[in-house]
């Protein structure tokens, strides 16, 4: 359906939907600090098969979109104008797109403020969805990446949602062609972490860049081997703020078959790489049994 025939849509009918996959920082080096306080990063990111969903529903009388939130983590978010879904809709409108005649529905499956970019993924998915329903004028479409960056440092990478090396403050993106699908365990102990608070605790901002990324990897073991020469520089400051993160990393690392366990983003979600889906499933079942309050997901990241 295009913008022009939307006014004839049956109220409540589906106009489209977009998936907002979780972002995983496989490696995250902090390489400097800009004068404005933002940090320079060098990060390898991949995107998981688990994520939020944004749906657009016809609401012919609406002059601007309303937002409804459902799903397992809906209670973690208030419906307020600064929700990243609504902020993204306003950005779409500011770039010349239409946002009247529809309501938005977010299914929140990713824990809030958890280092896997849930809010950024939602913003990027909203921009993709609205761009499909009501395309931006050609002259403005090229501004989309800059507009996305205005919503958050992680939004441009989430707009791409394919394996990438991110530099600058996260907005300079280079596709990484050789990354295989990675069987992955995601574990969050149910503690939200504030990204600025973690950056504030960082002791050293000028760390070395990532080593060169190979053009191909045989399998997840090869990826894990390369990752061992890299770090997440935000892990130590996040653990200083929230010591239980270290226990989660140790718990995932102790699972049979775990190739590498590390925190993503500014935490507190920890990912574990495994050789195959069966070993991720077994690890997930054991950790769930021991820690029923933790969020434990068996998933995989998409290949390049
Ligand atoms: C840590 C990462 O998740 C890695 O992918 C991102 O850099 C954070 O991305 P994000 O959550 O979209 O971040 P923003 O909402 O833009 O910024 C939140 C806060 O984090 C800090 N921040 C963020 C990104 C960056 N490159 N340097 C920073 O110092 C700043 O204090 C900023 O005010
Ligand atoms: N749709 C949304 N989903 C999640 N958080 C949102 C949303 N809209 C606004 N926010 C706010 O954004 C903040 C950060 O949320 P987000 O889930 O993107 O963080 P994160 O997972 O730590 O991301 P990152 O990996 O970028 O550090 C939260 O404190 C939340 O209140």
From TrEMBL:
Entry keywords, A to Z: ATP-binding, Isoprene biosynthesis, Kinase, Nucleotide-binding, Transferase
E.C. code: 2.7.1.148
Residue ranges annotated for the GHMP kinase C-terminal domain, each copy included: 226-289
Catalytic activities: 4-CDP-2-C-methyl-D-erythritol + ATP = 4-CDP-2-C-methyl-D-erythritol 2-phosphate + ADP + H(+)
Pathway info: Isoprenoid biosynthesis; isopentenyl diphosphate biosynthesis via DXP pathway; isopentenyl diphosphate from 1-deoxy-D-xylulose 5-phosphate: step 3/6
Segments forming domain GHMP kinase N-terminal: 83-160
Enzyme class: transferase
Annotated InterPro entries: GHMP_kinase_C_dom, GHMP_kinase_C_sf, GHMP_kinase_N_dom, IspE, Ribosomal_Su5_D2-typ_SF, Ribsml_uS5_D2-typ_fold_subgr
Annotated catalytic residues: 23, 154
Residues annotated to bind ATP: 111-121
GO molecular function: 4-(cytidine 5'-diphospho)-2-C-methyl-D-erythritol kinase activity
Pfam family for this entry, one: GHMP_kinases_C
Family: Belongs to the GHMP kinase family. IspE subfamily.
General function of this protein: Catalyzes the phosphorylation of the position 2 hydroxy group of 4-diphosphocytidyl-2C-methyl-D-erythritol.
Name under which the protein is recorded: 4-diphosphocytidyl-2-C-methyl-D-erythritol kinase
